[in-house]
Write a structure and sequence with these properties.
It contains 4 helices and 2 strands; from the N terminus they run H-H-H-H-E-E. With 178 residues, the chain is mostly helical. Strand 1 and strand 2 form a beta hairpin.
């Protein structure tokens, strides 16, 4: 069920600030994971993944709240009959079009927070993409090594008990008797 929000400048700036803080925490978790992967410390990898997923869910919740607040701003503007607001839909209106009707100080503060939010989002996205690429490279190198060392296996991996296992990012132990 979609919650209905009334436009509130301070609530909106608070949500933006919380989103920025959450993105900064996400960047820290990603940096910890990248540092651990660089030194081949895989023991806490699953926990870091869960932390990142939890932060992602929290960010989605805050993003939905922010979108609802902006939609409320659009509704309040179209309800006023303001010339600046005429024809603006309640949702999907570009951020700066909504901010154009705010006071100058509100517009400056909101714009600053929004730019910082977008910067942090791009930073986290780039960190994530480079980390995934790094992990893929590790996986490819390990698969190439196993293929070169054991060509008779045809790229297939087996557990110590002989059952076939997928070649994913889970830890693997090479049996010395292979």
């Amino acid at each position: 069920m979609k919650e209905h929000y009334a436009w509130n400048f301070s609530a909106c700036t608070e949500v933006l600030a919380r989103e920025i803080a959450l993105l900064k925490r996400t960047a820290l978790v990603q940096e910890e994971a990248r540092s651990a992967a660089a030194v081949r410390e895989w023991s806490g990898f699953a926990k870091r993944q869960r932390d990142a997923e939890r932060l992602g869910r929290e960010f989605d919740r805050l993003e939905a709240e922010r979108c609802a607040l902006f939609a409320a701003l659009g509704e309040s503007l179209s309800g006023r009959g303001s010339p600046k607001a005429e024809g603006l839909p309640c949702e999907g209106t570009p951020f700066y079009a909504l901010c154009a009707v705010l006071t100058e100080s509100e517009r400056i503060e909101m714009g600053k927070l929004y730019r910082e939010l977008k910067f942090e989002a791009v930073k986290v996205k780039m960190m994530q993409q480079s980390f995934v690429q790094y992990l893929e490279e590790i996986k490819n190198v390990a698969a190439a090594f196993i293929e070169s060392a054991f060509p008779s296996r045809g790229g297939k991996l087996y557990s110590a008990l002989g059952s076939r296992i997928p070649a994913d990012m889970r830890s693997m132990i090479v049996n010395r008797q292979v």
